[in-house]
């Protein structure tokens, strides 16, 4: 998981490292000046609300100076390369760079050339490690497994456009490391058997068949910006087959929760009444994201010294 001071992904995540970060985030006993005087750059080549804002807030709460950079209006429009852009930003004296990019592998490329800490805030359809940490924290606290972070015996369904999803890939790694069983659920084109094999997850193309056995349903949106709409045939009834409706939610186990990393398309992958209902921990995931990113920034900068 950690590669020196860099946090790139959850593939092959180390359970001890995960639990250490989750313990810090759960306790939320951060020193307000833990990284006082440090400088953090949020470098986002893709749009973001939750991740970018929560990283900014996390850094500010720890006492760091924060600069939010977006590609709009930058020298990227003049043809500047990713590495040149990063080199320019790093040369200004930042201690950590949080990066989101539309190309899979972009964060690792920067880490390979960096002197400062690099934290992956999402690269293409590859990885989104801090979202996976936020989801694990939310799940553990919701199901009262917040000490020890032992998810043995839990079954989590990741439902929807898994093939396009960095959240699905990151959660598959982190949840498995903590002991959970993960089932990828969706249309065959969005949940191909080979994806399940690569991630070490079970695969189902029938949401209704797994509802009674899961402890959490992590709902994903259809990522049209990555061409996911072309994976479904014309007239495919996505909501009818894979939407988390009130009726489906009612068939889940009494304690089971519904999750969504956002942004949500209400009425497509999730019904509004479910997103706002008693089972939903969606806003809890957002709140957990701030605590997790505080823990990650503090550790990344500590490792970079």
- CATH topology heading of the largest domain: Rossmann fold
Radius of gyration: 19 Å
Q: Which runs of at least 5 residues are low in confidence (pLDDT < 50)?
A: none
Shape descriptor? globular
Listing every helix as H and every strand as E from the N terminus to the C terminus, the arrangement reads EEHEHEHEHEHEHEHEEHHEHH
Q: Trace the largest sheet across and list its strands.
A: 9-8-7-10-11
Q: What is the structural class?
A: alpha/beta
Quaternary? single chain
Give the strand tally: 11
Number of domains: 2
Q: Determine the CATH superfamily of the largest domain.
A: Aspartate/ornithine carbamoyltransferase
> Which strand-content bin applies to the residues?
15-25%
Give the helix level as a range of percent. 25-40%
Mean pLDDT: 95
What's the end-to-end separation, in Å? Answer: 19 Å
* Tally of helical segments: 11
Q: What is the CATH top level name of the largest domain?
A: Alpha Beta
């Amino acid at each position: 998981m950690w590669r020196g001071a860099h946090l790139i992904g959850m593939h092959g995540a180390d359970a001890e490292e995960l639990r250490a970060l989750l313990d810090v985030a759960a306790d939320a006993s951060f020193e307000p000046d833990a990284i006082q005087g440090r400088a953090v750059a949020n470098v986002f080549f893709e749009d973001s609300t939750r991740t970018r804002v929560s990283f900014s807030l996390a850094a500010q709460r720890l006492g760091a100076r924060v600069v939010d950079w977006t590609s709009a209006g930058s020298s990227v429009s003049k043809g500047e390369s990713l590495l040149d852009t990063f080199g320019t930003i790093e040369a200004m004296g930042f201690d950590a760079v949080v990066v989101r990019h539309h190309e899979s592998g972009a964060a690792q490329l920067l880490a390979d050339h960096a002197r400062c800490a690099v934290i992956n805030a999402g690269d293409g359809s590859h990885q989104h490690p801090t979202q996976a940490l936020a989801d694990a924290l939310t799940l553990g606290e919701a199901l009262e497994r917040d000490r020890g972070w032992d998810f043995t015996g839990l079954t989590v369904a990741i439902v929807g456009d898994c093939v396009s999803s960095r959240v699905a890939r990151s959660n598959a790694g982190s949840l498995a490391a903590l002991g959970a069983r993960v089932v990828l659920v969706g249309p065959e084109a969005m949940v191909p058997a080979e994806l399940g094999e690569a991630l070490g997850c079970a695969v189902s193309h029938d949401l209704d068949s797994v509802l009674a056995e899961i402890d959490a349903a992590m709902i994903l949106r259809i990522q049209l910006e990555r061409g996911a709409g072309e994976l479904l045939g014309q007239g495919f009834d996505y909501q009818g087959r894979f939407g988390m409706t009130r009726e489906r939610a009612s068939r889940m186990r009494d304690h089971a929760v519904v999750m969504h990393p956002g942004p949500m398309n209400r009425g497509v992958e999730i019904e509004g009444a479910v997103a706002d209902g008693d089972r939903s921990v969606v806003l809890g995931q957002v709140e957990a994201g701030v605590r997790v990113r505080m823990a990650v920034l503090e550790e990344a900068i500590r490792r970079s010294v």
